[in-house]
Design a protein that fits this description.
- The protein has 139 residues and is an all-alpha fold.
- The chain has one domain.
- The protein has five helices and no strands.
């Protein structure tokens, strides 16, 4: 569990450093949190979409998406605020992350890029597959 938490903090840290290098306006941590939340929502859509395509059952009730999407987004925002911004626990790892060698940092940057780009590609692919489904067969 500790390794998962550290990897999560590392992902946040790399996005944080990206925004901090662009413009140090004091909101880099909030921007990084927003990117993390967006990725979480995308992953949730991917899981729900792929599950609906495979099982041919609707997981989310039809109707207004604000009814189910808003509470989920709020819960994710509270979770991310508590994990990253409330006590800034990720800063406990900052010295370790900064001490990584140049080669290790390049590898980590590449992995973070692959995670973000891969999530976007998988979301697009899921939406494409979802558009091809015959919804009249869904229960």
């Amino acid at each position: 569990m500790e390794k998962i938490k550290k990897a999560y903090y590392l992902l946040f840290y790399k996005i944080y450093r990206f925004y901090k290098s662009m413009e140090d306006d004091g909101f880099a941590d909030w921007k990084a949190g927003l990117v993390i939340q967006t990725l979480q929502i995308f992953v949730m859509f991917i899981i729900i979409g792929q599950t609906e395509i495979i099982t041919k059952h609707k997981l989310i009730p039809a109707g207004d998406p604000k009814i189910w999407a808003t509470p989920i987004a709020i819960m994710l925002a509270i979770f991310n605020y508590y994990i990253f911004l409330h006590r800034r626990n990720w800063k406990n790892y900052e010295e370790e992350f900064r001490s990584y060698s140049r080669q290790k940092n390049r590898l980590i940057n590449f992995i973070v890029f692959c995670i973000i780009f891969g999530t976007l590609l998988l979301l697009i692919f899921t939406l494409y597959l979802y558009s091809k489904v015959d919804r009249t067969k869904y229960k």
